[in-house]
Amino acid sequence: MKTIVLNGDYGFLDKIETTIKSIIYHNQKVKIYVINPDIPHEWFINLNQYLSQIGSQIVDKKIDQAYLNDVNSSFKGIKNIAFARILIPELIKEDKVLYLDCDIVVNANLDELFNIDLENKWVCGVRDYQVPAEFNSGVLLINNKKWKKSNIVSRLLEKAKDTNLRNGDQTVINEVFKDKIEELDLSYNYQIGFEKAAFWGNLQKTTQFLDKVKKPKIIHFITEDKPFNLVSTVSLRNKWWHYRRLEWSEIISKYSSFNKSKIKDPSFDGEAFLLTRMAEVQNIEQLIKKLPNIRFNIAAYTPMAFLLLKLTQYDNVRLFPTIVGKTLDKEINEADIYFDINYGPKADEIIERIMKKNIPIFSFDQTQSQNLDYDNYHVFRDNQIDEMAEAIKETVKTNAPKYNIRVKDMDESLDLILRDNKSVIRFGDGEFDLIRGGSIPYQTYDSELANRLKDIILRGQFNNTLVCLPDVFTKLERYQDFTRYFYKTSFFPNNESFLNEIGQTGNWYGSTFISRPYIDLFDKSKSAAYFDKLKQLWSGRNLLIVEGALTRSGVGNDLFANTKSIKRIIAPSKNAYQKISEIEQMIRENAEDRLILLMLGPTAKVIVDDLQDLENQIIDLGHIDSEYEWFKMGATYKVKLENKHTAEFNFDENIGSVHDQTYEDEIIGEVE
Length: 672
Prior knowledge:
Blueprint: E1 2-7, H1 13-26, E2 30-36, H2 41-51, E3 57-62, H3 88-91, E4 96-100, E5 104-106, H4 111-114, E6 123-127, E7 135-143, H5 144-150, H6 152-160, H7 168-176, E8 181-183, E9 190-192, H8 195-201, H9 204-212, E10 218-221, H10 237-245, H11 248-253, E11 270-275, H12 284-290, E12 294-299, H13 306-309, E13 317-320, H14 325-334, E14 337-339, H15 348-356, E15 361-364, E16 377-380, H16 385-399, E17 406-407, H17 410-420, E18 423-426, H18 429-435, H19 447-459, E19 465-469, H20 481-494, H21 496-505, E20 508-511, H22 527-538, E21 542-548, E22 565-571, H23 580-590, E23 595-599, H24 601-610, E24 618-620, H25 624-633, H26 661-666, E25 667-670
Parallel strand pairs: 1-2, 1-4, 2-3, 6-8, 9-10, 11-12, 11-14, 12-13, 14-15, 15-16, 17-20, 18-19, 19-20, 21-22, 21-23, 22-25, 23-24
Antiparallel strand pairs: 4-7, 5-10, 6-7
Helix pairs in contact: 1-10, 6-7, 17-22, 18-19, 19-24
């Protein structure tokens, strides 16, 4: 694998990415380090989801910019981060490294360059086109093995502090490696930007260098005359913009079939939390490396020192400096374990909250809290990092919900319904509340109803009816924070016994979320496709909609615009189960050849079960109208609708009347 190193800060991010695009466009199996003080790590995570598809990688190397405070950059506008290249031996482990400035685009495959034998060489470079006695420091092929052995960094840093440097880091490289730089072909650092000076100053050597290169392999936009300025006189401006415009999917597709499903939010097996009052945290970096599938959420009441900030270079770390109330509450609520491993004063108020939630706490001898009476407190010797890591893996594994319940995802469920013309019964948290003996806002507990619901779930698929459960038993990270929190802290613990009973049946289920294909999803990019599949169910068909008095499904939107005709039966908005016989009789009288859609809460489940003798396809579709309204408005949270019932706004307060003659004409019966 070819190793390439870039350096820069967030202000130069678009240039860094353009350089990387040009590298990958011509080269596979590349490992690219970006030495930086402040680039958000999410950018690296996102980019790696593309690069990993062609065997390449980008690595976040954080440095404390204060380390370079004393260097002399020589020119206004040149930041000290440019000197980070001289730290390569301390930061990069590979033996052969190609360093590139970030005002560069690579215009060719670099295999030939990387095949150069560096055994007895220190560094290779290209002559500076304007000062041929020097080598330009923007492209350097480095024998990093030799640099590391020689402790060269201290000499480079000392030279960098010289207040008389003529040309910043370039002077440092040339003077420290005087007579030790091997010459590369001019095409490996084609230095654009000197043309104007060469023309007006009659710099013949510069012109000769430029004219000699017919096919530049690495194009270096030197001087302040950059192609990304508003205007520039530099040649090959269009070349830089060519690479800048490239989409990552397009670059990846050059080598293999681009897999869009790989572009997603990272997921973890568990969440670890730590609130520290000091930057010094015992063995934290080793634990982060040993537990890549555990996300470390590290918080402080104050801004953070670089000792903590540098941890953002790991995929499984999030930092929360100056954490505020709601965020703190959320992190505590979602924590699977807590680390009590910070030196100095403890956040006793946080530890007390953690203990009340019975969250396991892990600590080392040196940093443990004293006189803490808590059975779920686990202390390890200071050198038992591996043992702690294994114990954490086991703890998270043990705490994870395991109900052996198989639920097909939304795509699979919708495909089954479309292909086999299946009827559908969907169970959500409300039905589980009733089964457990509770009431819900729109249905008072009824033991007969509860038993019917339980029996249907345990029986599983029957005739041509798909029984559905929430698709939350794997990959909970697919959903919004509030959804994950609800299932993790409420649904799972409250229904543990019954969920275990379901798991013992060996049944498989469809996804309840076929009627919730938008608001709870973290990634909403597929929601339009889910709604398209749903609309295929009733496309060109006659419908019989059975719904509550204020549900008004499809009123004011185009959810059912592709149907042939619609009839509606209006049932009670609350306690519809007490009228189930009348509702079922009215359905039988009007079923005809219609697709029957039920939006009637728990009662709908029993109706589908009771009407199995009908030849109609009957689908319990629940809150589909609210979801569709939110989807159409691009909502990011649950918005109350003005003129109809809204999912999760269970008390139906202040709902306006509607004056829709089409809707009124569709109503063929009411059960009061």
